[in-house]
């Protein structure tokens, strides 16, 4: 079998796809979306496509090594997202070639279904805000979700007045009151806080027993994370912006957090996600792969979730279940997604939809994430 084509598509604002074709007619699909950088990954994939042409797609590890090591400059979000998409598409091809779900080629599944959490929270304590939150919760409860993630809304400065902190803390405790004690609740700080503020806020919410707090500070400094984890009694999580084992190394070896969130679409693909999970197992850390994009990225996450023992829970978003993009979207039942039994990554792409070109207004440099962020009081740059 030989690779004959690598095609790329941009059917939606936040969706980039690749399709790798072979001379046997088998095709592999994957997602190459890098949020906020819609043009860069496609260019990187075009460069790798020159290498892939005519190669055997089943030599997945060989190609990973080639793409990662041979062009001298390594790593980086664009490069690793390009490698990730190609790697996932090759796993799809391999499963289809052997006639088995791709997870059977990774040692076989160690679980039958994948526990997922939904995005839900209370962001606005006004009557209308509470009503909207209540409606969404009811809808999600009907699907049987048993875990939800929220985040403090808006920008956070180095310190905020008690009123701002109290508003978030009150929302957190209200969420607990609404869902009861059998449901897990977690919060994503999106790396917007300083270590001191993060500790203060975490200690304020510890009484409502969060499952974890994610990215209390940005990802670059594992010592800062470790310092926060040592002062907080519940698990912290990080890793959606870390790429490859080498960027996870300090977080794992310093045991800076309890839970790791590699993003399969950015960390180097399913091959690298599995290696990160195996590495983390030594330190009793669990993985909860980040997935805030589409249904093919979710499939690539679940490929690894299925085969590693130290998997805890999978992120997914409403738009990421594949409505309108997959012939059969992923279905959440009782808070889980059943493993597929079809060959490959378990997705059948609706080609008519997937190959459409998105031409909406938001296409372009970093506008996919909503534009530019500044502190209102002084106009200085704020984190997303
Ligand atoms: Mg996050």
UniProtKB/TrEMBL annotation:
<dbReference type="InterPro" id="IPR018110">
    <property type="entry name" value="Mandel_Rmase/mucon_lact_enz_CS"/>
</dbReference>
<dbReference type="InterPro" id="IPR029017">
    <property type="entry name" value="Enolase-like_N"/>
</dbReference>
<dbReference type="InterPro" id="IPR036849">
    <property type="entry name" value="Enolase-like_C_sf"/>
</dbReference>
<feature type="domain" description="Mandelate racemase/muconate lactonizing enzyme C-terminal">
    <location>
        <begin position="130"/>
        <end position="235"/>
    </location>
</feature>
<dbReference type="InterPro" id="IPR034593">
    <property type="entry name" value="DgoD-like"/>
</dbReference>
<dbReference type="GO" id="GO:0008869">
    <property type="term" value="F:galactonate dehydratase activity"/>
</dbReference>
<dbReference type="InterPro" id="IPR013341">
    <property type="entry name" value="Mandelate_racemase_N_dom"/>
</dbReference>
<dbReference type="InterPro" id="IPR029065">
    <property type="entry name" value="Enolase_C-like"/>
</dbReference>
<protein>
    <submittedName>
        <fullName>Galactonate dehydratase</fullName>
        <ecNumber>4.2.1.6</ecNumber>
    </submittedName>
</protein>
<dbReference type="InterPro" id="IPR013342">
    <property type="entry name" value="Mandelate_racemase_C"/>
</dbReference>
<dbReference type="Pfam" id="PF02746">
    <property type="entry name" value="MR_MLE_N"/>
</dbReference>
<dbReference type="Pfam" id="PF13378">
    <property type="entry name" value="MR_MLE_C"/>
</dbReference>
<dbReference type="GO" id="GO:0009063">
    <property type="term" value="P:amino acid catabolic process"/>
</dbReference>
<keyword id="KW-0456">Lyase</keyword>
